[in-house]
Structures are given as C-alpha cells and as structure tokens.
Amino acid sequence: MKRILLLTTLIISINLSGQDVRIGINFDPVISWFSPNTKLIDKDGSKLGFSGGLMLETAFKENYIFATGINLAYMGGNILYNEATNFTVDEDIIVLLDSATTVEYTLQYISIPLSLKLTTNPVGYISYFGQLGFTPQFNVSAKATSTRSTNGNMLDKDNVGKEIGLFNLSFFIGGGIDYDLGGTTALNLGIFYNNGFIDQLSSETHKASLKYVSLRLGVMF
User: From residue 54, how far is each of 49, 70, 72, 158 by CA, in Å?
Assistant: First the structure.
C-alpha cells in the first residue's frame, strides 16, 4: 500500500509541474465480468459496480492531453466452477465447494490510469474526445459468495484474498464529450471498454481475466 501511495504522489507531482493542468473528480458506473481462459470454469454473470476518484490532465500540445489520476474501483463477476474446488478463506481456512458451484466475486482495486486523450476544437460548448491507455490496478479487497454445495459448504461474503492476484493491468479505449460550463469548468462524459489481460485467479488451474465497461461521469475544474 505504501508503494501505491508513493507512485500516486509521484504521478501527481509530475503533472502539477506542467504548464496546463486541470483537476477533476469522477464517479463511473461499471459493468464487469470474468473472461475464463480454461474449460474448468465458465462465466456465469456480470456485476454492477462503480469507480470514483481524482482526474488529472496535462496538455503537452494543442489537442493532445496526458490524462491520469487515481480511483477506487468496485467490480467483480460470477464464475461457475465445473469441478470440486478448495477455497482459502481468511488466510488459512479451507472450504471445499462441489462442482457446478457458482461463486460471485466482489473486488476492490486502486486504479491509476495512464492515457492519451485526443480532443477536437470546441464546437459551441462541446469538445469531442477519444482516449486510450493502460490502467494498472492493485487489489485491496476480495470477497466471495457461493451457491450452497451438497456437503453444506458455501461462501458468504468471505474474505478470499489469497484466491485473487494482487496486480491487474488492462488496456482501455473510449470517447465522449467535454461540455463547457464556463471558465475552466466542464462536464466530462464518456464510455470506455477495459480489457484486462492478466489472470486474476491465483489458482494454477483456474484462469480468468477481468473485463469491464464504464460510463464516465466527471467534472473538470
């Protein structure tokens, strides 16, 4: 956690030294799901969540912006396990779930997007933008709830931090509009697709990446 805060402080310091810096806040509704990479598990539903925090933008050339920030993201998804599976709960308790058991994951990440934002010149009060980049994410909480097994075992919002990898990295692309409210204040509205390409399950046999779509609801100052 200290390394994450140090990295965030460094990014913010670099941006604040620029000639043209804008700061904003965002609250983004999110729909997320797991994309399995093995036949031992299947996707079994998506999860509604949200991401919110601080946005920073530094213009390094006209219509070219480096955009970053820090967000706390709540997301997850459902996985159907096609074989009996052991889960480690609260660091050392082993729970055996039967095959054909669905597990709903609720995950929290600290996200630090690093992106290039391309904007048009204003058309009236509106500027259009496209944006793409990468989002390093650090897992800070992992809880799971399952359907009940025939042996009576189940997960009920249990801490399963050992079952989820610490780090995630996703590529994202999207676009939207900045609506001028006067002065330097503007609404920032958009939609983004995020494609995670690092396995989020710590099991050697169960592999799945995390993908999500987010709606940007933000205000730049």
Answer: 17, 5, 9, 30
